[in-house]
From TrEMBL:
Residues 1-26 form the signal peptide. GO terms for cellular component: cell envelope. It comes from Christensenella minuta. The keyword Protein biosynthesis does not apply. Residues 30-59 are annotated as: Disordered. This is Periplasmic binding protein domain-containing protein. Keywords: Signal. Its main location: other. The keyword RNA-binding does not apply.
């Protein structure tokens, strides 16, 4: 995508963000949002690569596209749209499908857990939306166990539901189960975490890399062009695609803004992504890394397990070892809240700015309103639950075409900051103001937009 085109897309995102509002968080025990908790089983993805949502075309293999696309799939690049993704129209996905019983639509949903306010919001919002449409929804909890999730899918096949929703416990475990359901004539919609290549209609999920890319740019804008940024990072768990793509996106965004501020911009967003990817890999391998040219250094990172308590513990260690830092990048709002406590205790609150990449919780927005947090990104459990049911309504009752969707259908990314927090704030819910559902783009539409 060319740079001017990316600017126009960012402008569209900013305008869209001004149309909605925000917010409430979880308790101190709350864990990370959907895909992060989904992929906390980092051992299943510890190689640093995961199967592509849809394989890259032979054009990429032939070296005719930017290097960043040739690197895909990578955990740390999840969320970058590959304009050379192969069509899926000819893949049997058990679609089209008519409800088994006239006037009734039966949905079977297997969810990872209910261990945090994020997952609770997914369940509650899905049930409310299904009730609104008059659908029958059976919502089962896998308790982080792939075998239990497999049994759920078998149960739904035996029941003959009209469609199955799967939030994968990990990327590989449910693939055979999904394909088995499709072979039985039942379409499958995934949410939250993208499974390895399979016959699901698509996966509805937040755009982790681009949320990082946008929030990273915003964080960097808070520093003068000649001011060195000495940063630390608090991550959920390295080895999770959610963690790695969010932080890789943030590093890429910071590099992009810094190089622009210094008058030596990258030729394209792809170049910024590639530079960010290389720097993130250095940080991941060595525990630190930086760019003298951009005036940006990451001097350390800590693991916070997506919780307030984890963020507090990680930040305490980082404060001790990095007395000269002036920026702390947190993967999510919960860890940022813990980090703020550590900075306050260490008398470093005035010295160190904190930015969050996700989730847009009410607690995160409260911290933005008070001036204690620079920003956060979009990732609402309410949207995840509601929009899955909206998608099902769209394909069964509104005639929407789901025959050639990518395996990864990404929600619009965005930044919440002091500039728009008031417009996005809503005291009645746990996240930013819920947006209107938009049916995902097909592969041909994505190709036309991005080439």
């Amino acid at each position: 995508m060319k740079k001017k085109k990316w600017y126009s897309l960012l402008a569209v995102v900013v305008i869209a963000l001004l149309l909605f509002t925000a917010c409430t968080p979880a308790e101190t025990t709350a864990t990370e949002s959907a895909s992060a908790s989904t992929e906390a089983q980092a051992s299943t993805e510890a190689s640093g690569e995961e199967s592509a949502p849809a394989s890259a075309s032979t054009e990429a293999a032939a070296g005719e596209v930017h290097e960043i696309y040739q690197l895909m799939p990578k955990l740390s690049l999840a969320g970058i749209v590959n304009p050379y993704v192969e069509d899926r129209a000819d893949l049997d996905k058990a679609w089209p499908k008519e409800p088994a019983a006239e006037g009734t639509l039966k949905i079977g949903w297997t969810e990872i857990n209910q261990s945090s306010d994020w997952f609770i919001a997914v369940k509650n919002s899905a049930e409310e939306k299904a009730k609104e449409y008059g659908y029958e929804l059976e919502f089962l909890i896998a308790e982080d166990d792939p075998q239990t999730q497999s049994q759920h899918i078998d149960t739904f096949i035996t029941q003959g539901v009209d469609i199955i929703v799967v939030d994968p416990v990990n990327s590989s475990a449910p693939v055979a189960d999904i394909n088995r359901a499709v072979e039985a004539g039942i379409p499958v919609l995934c949410v939250g975490a993208v499974p390895e290549n399979c016959a699901a209609l698509t996966t509805l999920c937040s755009n982790t890399f681009m949320n990082g890319y946008l929030t990273g740019q915003y964080m960097a804008e808070q520093f003068a062009a000649d001011e060195e940024i000495s940063a630390t990072m608090i991550v959920g768990v390295m080895g999770s695609s959610c963690t790695e793509s969010r932080l890789c996106g943030a590093v890429s965004g910071i590099l992009k803004q810094r190089m622009e501020a210094k008058g030596t911009p990258y030729a394209s967003d792809e170049d910024a992504w590639l530079a960010g990817y290389n720097l993130f890999e250095e940080i991941k391998s060595n525990g630190k890394g930086g760019s003298d040219e951009a005036g940006f250094q990451v001097t350390g990172y800590g693991t916070g397990d997506w919780t307030i308590e984890g963020g507090l513990a990680a930040a305490e260690d980082l404060c001790t070892a990095n007395a000269g830092m002036n920026l702390m990048i947190s993967e999510n709002d919960f860890m940022a809240a813990g980090a703020l406590k550590a900075l306050t205790s260490a008398n470093m609150k005035d010295q160190v700015k904190i930015g969050s990449v996700a989730d847009g919780t009410r607690e995160g927005l409260d911290l933005i309103k008070s001036g204690d947090l620079l920003c956060t990104g979009l990732n609402s459990g309410i949207e995840q639950g509601e929009w899955a049911i909206d998608f099902i309504h769209a394909i069964f009752e509104e005639g929407k075409d789901c025959s050639d969707l990518p395996l990864e259908s990404l929600f619009t990314p965005g930044v919440i900051s002091k500039e728009n927090v008031d417009e996005m704030y809503d005291e009645s819910i746990g996240f930013y103001k819920t947006q209107e559902f938009q049916f995902p783009q097909s592969i041909p539409e994505l190709k036309a937009e991005n080439q």
